[in-house]
Amino acid sequence: MQSKQYKIWTELDRQQLIAAIEQSKRKCGQVDWDEVAKCMPSRSRQQCKSYFMNIMKKDCDVKMVKYHTWTEQEVNMLLKCAEIEKKNWEAIQQNYFPGLNAHQIQAKHSYLLQQQAKAKERSVMLTRMSQTQSQETPQTANNSYDLASSQQLVLQLQSLLNAFSQ
Question: What is d(CA 14, CA 1) in angstroms, rounded to the nearest whole number?
């Protein structure tokens, strides 16, 4: 049985890897590691990615996609900018969020709209549930069920859902 020999990364290999990474970046800033491996015939996709991420990344100037934690202020600004700029993600990126790419901004906006739709759907469902319960439950003097407290509970649940959806 023949064992595979480990091939040491030379300076030329490193330069080729950086050039391949720069060429194979997608519009959103992510690296297409399959394309990188095609430029490096003696290396696999996994070898290229692993070597770069674990060894070279900290020592070179290749810009990679950075994950961003959005603040509440940035979220509000994004929603307003999307209306003002009519969802021109390139303009929004250049004018308001230069540290991010247009794809990240568009993805966050889509996610926010989905969350808002889900929150609205939950709110409608809770309102319907409270209306159904108020119609089914007889209102008597001895009954501890009270419509006003039920409506307060629905409002509290709606505010909690809105808080969690953001």
Answer: 31
Domain holding 27, by residue range, is 11-59
How confident is the model at residue 139, as a pLDDT? 53
pLDDT tens-place string over residues 50-96: 988 888 877 776 666 566 788 999 999 999 999 999 999 999 988 99
Residue 82 and residue 54 share a domain: no
Say if CB 104 and CB 68 are below 8 A apart: yes
pTM over 0.70: no
Question: Closest Cα partner for 61 from 21, 98, 100?
Answer: 21
- Cα 112 to Cα 97: distance, rounded to the nearest angstrom: 16
Flag whether 6 is in a domain. Answer: no
Does residue 67 belong to any structural domain of this protein? no
Chain center to CA of 7: 38
Which sign does the torsion angle of CA 87, 91, 95, 97 carry? positive
**How many domains is the chain partitioned into structurally?**
2
